[in-house]
Structures are given as structure tokens and as C-alpha cells.
Amino acid sequence: MRKVILGLAISLDGYIEGLNGEFDWCFTDQEYGLADFYNRIDALFIGRKSYEIKQQFEEGSGESTPGMPAMTEYVFSRTLSAVKTGAVLINDDGIAKAREIKAKPGKDIWLYGGAVLTEQMLEAGLIDELWLSVHPILLGSGKQLFKKQEQRVNLKLLESKIYDTGLVSLRYRILN
Prior knowledge:
The chain has helices at 34-40, 48-61, 94-103, 115-123, and strands at 4-11, 15-17, 41-47, 72-76, 88-90, 108-113, 129-135, 143-144, 155-162, 168-174. By secondary structure, the chain is α/β, with parallel strands linked by helices. The chain has a single domain (4-174), classed as Dihydrofolate Reductase, subunit A (3-Layer(aba) Sandwich). An eight-stranded mixed sheet has the order 5-4-3-6-1-7-10-9. The longest helix has 14 residues, at 48-61.
């Protein structure tokens, strides 16, 4: 069965966005293992807000996330009525649809973003791995990655790597 891997940048104090939604702090001149990660995946789970931000970036720069190969994008939204050509809109019963997609043959799936989508998938037990790029910055406030949990989530460290910039890459398997 395919794995769902939450892979994203996070500040040392646990934020995925600054107070005003900014994420400029997480772009650097290094790829931090993305090329190898891209070889593991062939699909993307993305929430509406993250999808809209990604679309704005693509329209402004003419490219997708740097180096990201073409893959199936599953957009989870209750409010969007259409998505770009080639993407798949999931607007009802998202957790059940995610389970179906995960059970299909293929490579692993990148849970690209969306704090709400991440929270729902974590609660449903759909996330298999966390791959966090911990940036050496304290944002002080903004959008936290993890909200209050109803239960403890046990993790096993699979890999860690320290880069010259101070970024620490951590990959965990979710045990429960």
C-alpha cells in the first residue's frame, strides 16, 4: 500500500506560516533532498488554500514548485468548483476518497499542505510519515502545524540530516 508522507517546511518554533501568511523564510538556494523525494512519489494531496497559493506561484513564475515533476494533484476543497486541467477535485467525503487513492497501486503520496487537511488526515490515521524541514528561524506567531491532539502520536526517527545553513531534515514513521 502507498504511504502518505507529510513533507513540509516548519520553523523551529512550530509554524508553517508567519503571522501574515508569509512563507518566504522557507526558500533557500538548496534542494534539501527534494530530488530523491520526488522519485518516491507520483501524487499530491493538497488543501484549497495551499492549492491557491501554489497556483499563484505557478502563474507568477511560469513554473511549478522548483524541480517538481508532473504528478496527479488531488485537491481537497468544499468550496472550489473547478481545478486546473489534470488535477482532481475532491469536495465531499475527502477522508474516504483519500483511503481509496492510498489503496490504489502507485508510488507514495505527498501531503503537500494545508493545516486543516493535515489535521484531518492525522486524526484519520492516514499519514504514514512526517518529513519536516526544520528551518533555523523563530517566527514567534503564525499558523502552527500541529493543533491540540486528542491522543498521543508515537513516532520513530527514520532519518536526520543537518545542512550547512542550519536546516535540519527529520523523517519519522508514525507508529500508531
